[in-house]
Every structure is written in C-alpha cells, then in structure tokens.
Amino acid sequence: MCMGRGKLLQGQRLALIFLCKAYRTVSTEALPVLAGVLPVDLEVQRRAAMYYSRQQNMECDFLGARDRGKITRLLQQQPDVYNDLIDEWQQRWDESSKGRHLYQFFPSVRERLSKI
C-alpha cells in the first residue's frame, strides 16, 4: 500500500467507525464493505476521472505517473469507470487477509452495494 493511499484510508476509517457504530478492532479493509461505500482512494480516482473528462488536462503536478496512467486508462472507457473501480475493490477484498469473518457474509462487493 502506498503512503498516500494509507493516509486517505486512515482518514476515512474513523468516519466509517462512527457511521457503522463499529468497534475500533474492525479492519480498515472491512469498513467500506460494511458501510457500502467506495474506499476513499478509489473515490478520489473516480472523481479525478470525472474532472479530467471535463477538463481534458492531464498535465497536473499532483498526480503521480502511476495515477495519471490509470486515470487516462479510465477515461478511455468512461462508462466503465465505476465498474473498473468496483472490480479493483473486489480484487483487494478477495486478496485481503483481514475482515475474513465479514467476507463470509459479503463475499461480493457489487452485491453488497446493490443491497444498500
């Protein structure tokens, strides 16, 4: 996990703990699934793709080369941006070693989001 992503998720963690009325021992990976919201780093990527689809200006300093490439790829398939981010989130959820008890109840992120 890159440092910026970790800081973003850490900031979202406290809000989701209060929102879900969860204990502090609930993992950071499980909280967005439990709350039914995108992890904040994926939400930032979604919003950046929306912004750049309007601006057509990918030469900003705050985007790293990795993020710039990913957002460019997302812009090429604009209707599928949200689905691509959900797929990435599902892959993280499947590969995570944390939140396995919650995974038994909500193995599919997409199904969890459709129930909310």
Please describe what this structure looks like.
- With 116 residues, this protein is mostly helical.
- It has one domain (3-114).
- 68% of the residues lie in helices and 0% in strands.
- The chain has helices at residues 3-20, 30-35, 40-55, 65-76, 81-95, 100-105, 109-114.
- Helix 3 (40-55) packs antiparallel against helix 5 (81-95).
- The longest helix has 18 residues, at 3-20.
- It starts with a helix and ends with a helix.
- The mean pLDDT is 83.
Question: What are the defining features of this structure?
Answer:
single chain, 116 residues, mainly alpha, 0% strand
In terms of topology, how is this protein built?
Elements: H1 3-20, H2 30-35, H3 40-55, H4 65-76, H5 81-95, H6 100-105, H7 109-114
Please count the beta strands (DSSP E, at least 2 residues each).
0
Largest sheet: none
Write down the secondary-structure element order: HHHHHHH
Helix and strand content put the structural class at: mainly alpha
End-to-end CA span: 28 Å
Summarize this structure briefly:
The chain has about 120 residues and is mostly helical.
